[in-house]
Design a protein that fits this description.
two-stranded antiparallel ribbon; alpha+beta; globular; BirA Bifunctional Protein, domain 2
């Protein structure tokens, strides 16, 4: 068995792009995602380094293991999902690379895709179990499902297709795609680069009956949006133009990859999560498994959010009258959705015990124990009548 800690450290130690620096992970409460929680790897650091997500005035290459909260994924657990978490870690492989001058993408993207296939081989995943999607090209309006109606036709991502084949991934394992899964087309509250994206899967089934688990994404950024007028809003984007700079990166879902490497049936059985879920099932013995997972992932996300609120030095917060750190109204509303999922049958003592189990297995997040009281207080102050019954 490969422990989560061991896999996490192997990803951190994998060779990085020249000049890469190790940085503290972004807080879950960052100005890069106002009113929400951190959902990606680069935005917080680009905002701090460049003041935005475009106009990379100098090279900046960094490495970190980033925490992300995606609360919407919790509802998928109620539908039988096995691979979703309320809070998870995303590690780069070769570093998050932003370059002031446009690189040779055929070389750079080829290199990072070859590297991810090579890393998988070192943890027991051969190239013939790797599957990947790539953009098949088409009009922007079609690829974005009507989200952006621009007079632009995106060429097929033959570069990634050819690089994956060159890395040993069988041609039949490549999935042509015409959605935003493979065209990175965002406006994250401010001008944001567009580019190509690959979802990278591992087949945990058979050749004839594949069962694909999404464990990583690869990106390379090639365009910048053109805005009409002075307003840099999403609805003011009217065209795309080529970037004169460039960026690449691979994000690996550490928990999912750990589950796949160890042949686990679901991500919640990864070693560092197992004690928490054992304790939660004991506390709620008559609760259906999907509700256990929804409650558990909501509680875990709340624990991480309140830990960052009180202890991450870069967290964005509202100062309270007594010097307390408070969530913004929009973030309070989002945490209320999570608190509703935490069973009213869990009293303060039980909540504290569960959070102690959660903290004990994650020494890489050293302040989890310090935030147990604050998390319990936040959950129990939410009206019990609004929390789900067991």
């Amino acid at each position: 068995m490969t422990s989560y800690r061991e896999l996490r450290e192997r990803l951190q130690a994998w060779p990085k792009y020249d000049g890469c620096e190790t940085v503290r992970r972004a807080p879950l409460l960052t100005a890069a995602f106002p009113g929400a929680f951190n959902m990606s790897s680069t935005e917080h650091h680009w905002l701090g380094e460049y003041g935005g997500f475009l106009d990379w005035k100098h090279d900046f290459v960094f490495s970190t293991v980033q925490s992300c909260v995606r609360a919407d994924d919790i509802e998928r657990l109620r539908l039988g999902g096995r691979w979703h978490l309320g809070v998870f870690e995303m590690a780069d492989l070769n570093g998050e690379v932003a370059l002031a001058h446009r690189p040779d993408y055929r070389r750079l993207q080829g290199w990072q895709l070859e590297e991810v296939v090579r890393f998988f081989a070192t943890v027991g995943i051969p190239a013939d179990r790797v599957h990947a999607s790539y953009c098949a090209g088409g009009p922007v309006a079609e690829l974005t499902g009507g989200a952006y109606d621009l007079p632009v036709v995106i060429p097929p991502d033959t570069l990634s297709h050819d690089a994956l084949c060159g890395a040993g991934v069988p041609e039949e394992n490549l999935i042509p795609d015409r959605t935003r899964d493979t065209l990175l087309s965002l406006h994250v509250h401010r001008p944001t680069p567009w580019g190509y994206r690959n979802e990278i899967f591992v087949n945990i089934g058979t050749r004839t009956t594949p069962d694909l688990v999404d464990v990583a994404t690869s990106e390379y950024l090639t365009w910048r949006p053109v805005f009409e007028g002075a307003h840099l809003r999403r609805d003011s984007i009217v065209d795309l133009t080529e970037l004169d700079a460039g960026a690449i990166g691979i994000g690996v879902g550490v928990e999912r990859l750990c589950a796949v490497v160890n042949g686990l049936d679901r991500v919640h059985d990864v070693d560092y999560l197992r004690p928490f879920y054992t304790a939660l099932r004991h506390a709620l013995p008559d609760t259906a498994p999907p509700e256990i997972l929804a409650a558990g992932e909501s509680l875990r996300a709340l624990h991480r959010i309140y830990t960052d609120l009180h202890f991450h030095p870069e967290a964005v917060f509202r100062p309270g009258p007594d010097g307390d750190r408070l969530l913004s109204p929009k973030r309070r509303k989002r945490t209320a959705r999570l608190k509703r999922n935490v069973s009213r049958e869990l009293d303060p003592a039980t909540l504290a015990h569960l959070l102690a189990e959660h903290a004990a297995t994650q020494s890489w997040h050293p302040h989890l124990s310090d935030a147990i009281e604050a998390t319990v207080r936040a959950v129990t102050h939410y009206p019990a009548s609004n929390r789900r019954p067991a």
